[in-house]
Amino acid sequence: MSASHYAEVARAFQARGDAPAWLQAFREEGLSQFQARGLPTSKDEEWKYTPVATLSSHPFQPVRDVSAGEDVAQAVARLALPGPRLVFVDGRFVPALSVLTGLPRGVVLKPLSQALREDGALLRETLGQLSRPSAHAFTSLNAALLEEGALLTLAPRALSEVPVQLLFLARGGDGPVLASPRIVVVAGEGSEATLVETYAGLSSGASGATFTNAVTEVSLGDNASLRHFKLQAEGDTAVHLGGLYSRQGRDSRFQSHAFSFGGLLARNEVHAAFAGEGGECVLNGLFVGRGTQHLDNRTDLDHAVPHCSSRELYKGVLDDRARGTFHGKIRVREDAQKTDASQTSRNLLLSEGAQVDARPQLEIFADDVKCAHGTAVGRLDDNALFYLRSRGIPKVEAERMLTQAFASELVRAVPEGPVRARVEELLAGKLPGSAEVMG
Q1: What global pTM score does this model have?
Q2: CB–CB of 225/192 below 8 Å?
């Protein structure tokens, strides 16, 4: 569908008039920005390699209500992690399958629809401050349709040892479904938590086509720490566009681990910025595609203040006619002396038809820094394959072992426990010779 379709959807949504004035103004700004920009095309440099024309295949629409049937209950039983969680189906909150017990003192988790009623003052100051509606067309569209998602707040020095999970299930129904979740994290001084965003599909048929347009905003206070995991494994007709925006205070620590396995088209963006000295940031990503999947990854890391360090490692594994991209940028501003930053992209192509476009970038305007970047694209090592096969290991199994070894560095970066177990399960379903595990 064209931009006019999504603008019409947003206008109909806003016409309900069920929001306070400040929220309605926020939504209207999003719609205005979206109408001014329109959908990006291949002529837009930032979207040159993302085939958003895929969105014209179905008339995606948000849903008002969902029924949590047996398929949803089974999916939650399979995908849920121990501890507190919010469950959403096609963008709608499902209270019966969510768990809000076990939250430590000072840690508050609630669906955004509830927070918009109860925490208006906080959200008025927070929404859109990191992901402004003017950023690009899809942040604008998310703002225009803002209604549901999650709010996670941590009081100063609050500690949440058990991961908090946000489980988004894309099922689709009578028609193609559009979901626009907005996640807001506000971590007070000295607080610490782990957040897991899981996106999974329940249907792979044409009637189950889904479009998830997600935005996450993370604000870390001084000396706060957040580990963020994103596990994306939606169905094979799904479109997923996600943006993570973070801002770090003094001596804060932020880790982003993005695992992209599903979807016909999936694009993950990470925009991280240092707002205080002494911060540490880790951006890791693993994308594994086959068939005709298109998996895009973009990072933008802003070293705006001195004495901060960042480490960035993205790996891609592509088979059949799948295509992937990694476009990363580290910007070191003039006053950001003593910056220590590195960025690496490594990619493995398992077939002649697979393609990858890798483009790490450094923009350095300071002179007392330590920065490096690099990229590599290759195929499985023939000598290693020969060695394994000479020991009686079948070719497919040998390819599977080498591919798993290539990806293991990023899997091992996840602490042992249920999150790593889920990542390992998803990866196993994408390795050569395996039946694909989606959702």
Answers
A1: 0.95
A2: yes
